[in-house]
Amino acid sequence: MSMPFYVSPEQQMKDKADYARKGIARGRSVVVLQYDDGILFVADNPSRALHKISEIYDRIAFAAVGKYNEFENLRLGGVRYADINGYQYDRRDVTARGLANVYAQSLGTIFTETNKPYEVELVVAEVGEDAASDQIYRLTFDGSVADEHGYVAMGGQADAVAQALKDRFREGMGLAEALLAAVRSLEAQDSDRRLEATSLEVAVLDRNREHRLFKRLPAARIEALLREAESGSAGASSEGASGDGGSESS
């Protein structure tokens, strides 16, 4: 008679965590960082159809890495949660923190109660009146939440990207400079790779916009910003130009 197969709960959790981490590391990276007018999201993502960065609500956006169908499922749940709460109570009651708690519960339940954990990592960010009141929450596959400041890197070789970001990031960067720092940090995973504007998905939460603060940047705008930053004219002059793209809606 064969012995029943037993795996300790500790081992089971460890196996699930390893499985999820491997899945997330296979994906392409995303970085989120603060700049002087808000929060910038940059994804290594050549797909025009499958977004890794999305608007959730007026001042709140979402970025994700890992399995597309899994994080898309979470994104839709977040949009529903925000819409219902904003409608029932007040739009100001919908916060990144509340959303992060909802995601943490979902991910935690999936991780402990199902055989296959979600292979995803998320950032939920909310732009405030000023940089000090911006909120950036990072959620991992098991429902852990971290309150981040300055910048976050996730997916792919996230450690290499985060290290490169640490070297380049400074508070109060203009949009062009922040974008260049993000792109160079994403390239740090592979010394031979140059990321073109067309292989990037870029969006901002811009605190100076009216109502909906989320905006996607088209490839031409990304290219212009990168050229500007590289030519060394990044700085005060760039911010005058960053308001002129308001005609492209997200």
UniProtKB/TrEMBL annotation:
Activity regulation summary: The formation of the proteasomal ATPase ARC-20S proteasome complex, likely via the docking of the C-termini of ARC into the intersubunit pockets in the alpha-rings, may trigger opening of the gate for substrate entry. Interconversion between the open-gate and close-gate conformations leads to a dynamic regulation of the 20S proteasome proteolysis activity.
One cellular-component annotation, GO: proteasome complex
Pfam families: Proteasome
Entry keyword annotation includes Metal-binding: no
Sorted UniProt keywords: Cytoplasm, Proteasome
Major localisation: cytoplasm
Amino acid composition bias (Low complexity), ranges on this chain: 231-241
The protein's annotated pathway: Protein degradation; proteasomal Pup-dependent pathway
Family: Belongs to the peptidase T1A family.
Role according to the record: Component of the proteasome core, a large protease complex with broad specificity involved in protein degradation.
Quaternary structure and partners: The 20S proteasome core is composed of 14 alpha and 14 beta subunits that assemble into four stacked heptameric rings, resulting in a barrel-shaped structure. The two inner rings, each composed of seven catalytic beta subunits, are sandwiched by two outer rings, each composed of seven alpha subunits. The catalytic chamber with the active sites is on the inside of the barrel. Has a gated structure, the ends of the cylinder being occluded by the N-termini of the alpha-subunits. Is capped by the proteasome-associated ATPase, ARC.
Name listed for the protein in its UniProt record: Proteasome subunit alpha
Species annotation: Actinomadura keratinilytica
